[in-house]
Amino acid sequence: MNIRRTSAVTAAVASVALVLTACGGTAEESEDGGINQDTAVTVAWEAPLNELNLSSTNGNATQNSVISYMLNSGFNYYDDQLELVQDESFGTYEKVSDDPLTVKYTVGDDTKWSDGTAFDATDVLLQWAATSATFNNVEPVTDENGEVTNQDAVDAGVFFDGTTPGPSLIDEIPTISDDGKSITFVYSKPFGDWELDFTNQFVPAHVVGQQSLELTDAQEAKDAVRDAILGSDYAKLSPIAKFWNSGFEFTSMPDDKSLTVSNGAYTLEEYVENEYLTLKKNPDFKGKNQGSVETITVRYIEDPMAQVQALQNGEVDLIGPQASADVRSALEALPEVSTNNSVEGTFEHVDLVFGNKGPFDPTNPVYGGDAEKAKKVRQAFLLTIPRQTIVDNLIVPLNPDAEVRSSQILIPGSPNYDKMVADNGSDFYPAAGDIEKAKALLAEAGVTTPINVRFAYNNENARRVNQVALITDSAAKAGFTIVDTGRPAAEWGTLLGTGQDQYDASLFGWQSTSTAVTESDANFRFAPERGLNNYGLYNNPAVDAALDKLQVSTDPEEQFQLQLEIEKQLWADGFGTTIFQFPAIQAWDEKLEGVEPITISPTIFYNFWNWKLGA
């Protein structure tokens, strides 16, 4: 899974998304699967959809965002140059004031959900209410086994589990026009990435109202949601929040089709768990980016070489497998196949857990309240990670120019990357690792070895299995014993997001979904609301303060200096370590025209509206 990094935008909301890699499967064999093959495109993808609410903790994953990208539209989207384009066929937005920052969104007359219900300001209002934490008056408390100990209080209170930087800067309840088409937000302070808020991560407010408030009529349900938010009706907001958090989770076609309502070019027609899903062109969609083929079927095939085989056999038309030397060689040998070799907007990294009483937690009783001891143990462990060996063995065969990534925020090759790496303190951790330095730090901390480190990762992902093997061997030399707590793809995302008591370190990828400078907010913030991607429970007030300043900064040099300040803290604290930028290999049948992958999510699914099947 590569998790999406979140910012004010789309889930992760401009987040970086998390996406772990899920298990693959093969669809049931039939002559044509019920699909008109003349107007159908089949795509192989590694991880199955598990939720259609991209802004919830569980839904914030690339495996969900790539499907939602074809199901739903929004106020803007990225072009192939990663420039933001307004989609005025969906609606318009404008900044009506700088002081205070005030933004008005107006929904187009033809914008509708696929069940015929109008998309309007209430749908945007719900997104704000759910991601701003404005109404949250309780939070789950878990015991050492990860069980919620205050469930009654959570059920009785209001707790939306989705937060993003932008919406959290809007303290005032927004105003809605009399016709229900426009909504105006007033920010409490400037926000440089305001244009990335409220874009295309909406869930249908009328469905939330119907499901949570036991109402039948769509308009009545939508009005009830609107009134509950505008009136701060906590009695109704409690069930609304509970459904918003998990009501759109499913791993096969739900019996209740209202959970699959969309507002974009396609609708979800069929979903067989861990095997495939099929999207059908939405005949009532009036937007700009119309579906160009009648159906798009996404087959879930986790094994990269199995994806190549499926392409060779004509079972799929387009693949984006995890890159490996074998995959590259196999694709180069296939006739009538187009390939693209590049890098993705995803980077591999190891994060440590700070709040589980484990070996890296300053409150671990073993350290007697000495946070410096815990920091030295964290630093020692990170020094054992053989980043250069991982890159040389696993990535260079795919990309001869691959290098160890040494920035938590900036992508290698970006304008300030070299400057960042020179000054951020990452040189404390040599790319080759330093076992002797690690041993010395453990001696200074006065801790007894071996130290058990529960290591979480997707154990169905071959590349990550290989990385963990290399880390295990290296860490043992300094006195760390890796306890394998890997999980299958279907369980891995839940473990990462809510099972911190069960692991001490994690290995996964963060994938950018936007170009927002505030993307990193979701990864490192602890207060006033913990960032959606801060799975390690990292807590540094200085980082939070710098993130606060970064949210309101519009000057590029000031933005970089704040990012540098954040990175210095992260590397000094032993937050975690970065390893490499993902190599990308995509391939498609030459008869499929218009494929144009981009580096950020949705990668191979970008510009699906231009896909055409040639002769």
TrEMBL record:
Domain of life: Bacteria
Solute-binding protein family domain residues: 94-513
Signal peptide: 1-27
Pfam families: SBP_bac_5
GO cellular component: ATP-binding cassette (ABC) transporter complex; periplasmic space
GO biological process, alphabetically ordered: peptide transport
GO molecular function, one term: peptide transmembrane transporter activity
Record keywords, A-Z: Signal
Name of the protein in its database record: ABC transporter family substrate-binding protein
Organism: Oerskovia douganii
